[in-house]
Amino acid sequence: MATELMAQEARALLQQAQGRVTPTRVEVLSILLGAKAALSHQEIEQLAVQQGYSFDRVTLYRTLDWLVEQGVAHKVNSADRAWRYNAQTETPHQHAHFHCRQCEQVFCLEQLQPALLVSLPAGYALEQVELNLHGYCPACSIKHAG
Amino acid sequence: MATELMAQEARALLQQAQGRVTPTRVEVLSILLGAKAALSHQEIEQLAVQQGYSFDRVTLYRTLDWLVEQGVAHKVNSADRAWRYNAQTETPHQHAHFHCRQCEQVFCLEQLQPALLVSLPAGYALEQVELNLHGYCPACSIKHAG
DNA sequence: CAATATTTTGCAACTATATTGCATTTTCCT
DNA sequence: AGGAAAATGCAATATAGTTGCAAAATATTG
Questions:
Q1: Which of A23, A71, A110, A127 could form a disulfide with B135 if both were Cys (CB 3.0 to 4.6 A apart)?
Q2: Which residue, counting CA atoms, is nearest to the C1' of nucleotide C17?
Q3: For the CA atoms of chain A, what is the radius of gyration?
């Protein structure tokens, strides 16, 4: 597990944020940095415990909110009514999310550009485009197809 | 209020569904038919009360689920972690949703085609595309701009 | 039209996610 | 090291949605 590396990167990112670099924040951000998919609060809590760290649920919520506010993480709304979070290392850009129907994980697709024909009706002020793809992720596709 | 017309249309649609045409179902569907935006369970309940009709929360949830199942309504996941529903009179097609940041309403944009460049990484099995646009709806844009 | 079977509804209790207020602890700065 | 400000933990609460079961409504059959 490259936990220590992630922790270092996390600390570096937090250095630039408006606020304190606390163990909880380092832990949470390094978990997000090490994840391949967007994580729910529960998944994060579990991973933290696995790494010998624990914190209150409320603290986690607040930490995640703060990370989003600071621009180092972002929030995805998934079908099971739970927010999922992942680290946002690069500049905020429009990227798509792939929601797996089997394992319910949410993957960020950085390279997918929604070259959409924005022929929005008059009057709407567009601020952000959110593209969600639903289906089966590579791992689940294999199990599915057999 | 064109309630009676909506109720008639609702009854016609329900006639074709697999199940009973009950007052609750007619009421809920006609509310959805009369709405310009996707409605939350709370908004539906309120509108029903305004029209002199009331039902249990659970019944509403079940009714909405059933309407979706029957293909006469569809479900949208919005930012406030509440499902929103609207009538689906036409054939199910991929359409975009506009989420207003001010009034939190969700509008269906039937005409908007997400001509997206689907260059999905290998392994992903795409089943559905969900396009959400965030910003300010016409009514709120006006208030916003002054 | 009455009896019966089936579906739908209402009630109560429950689950899960998330939030709020406040006291305590930790962190940062000098 | 000391003190101000920020972060955390705990308890309580809000909100969305679900489940089981009994009662009511609707449809079906004799």
A1: A127
A2: A82
A3: 17
Tokens, residue A33: 């940095």
Read off the pLDDT of residues A24-68 as tens digits, 9 standing for 90 and up.
999 999 999 999 889 999 999 999 999 999 999 999 999 999 999
A112 touches chain B (CB under 8 A): yes
Question: What gap in Å lies between CA A24 and CA B100, rounded to an integer?
Answer: 34
pTM of the model: 0.79
How far are the Cα atoms of A5, A32, A84, A99, A142 from residue A139, in angstroms, in the given order? 26, 20, 20, 13, 6
Token pair, residue B48, equals 């029903």
Spanning CA of A39 to C1' of C9, the rounded length in angstroms is 38
Give the span between the Cα atoms of A90 and B129, in whole angstroms: 25
For CA atoms A108, B68, B24, B36, the dihedral sign is: positive
Domains present along chain A, CATH in parentheses: 3-87 (1.10.10.10), 96-145 (no CATH)
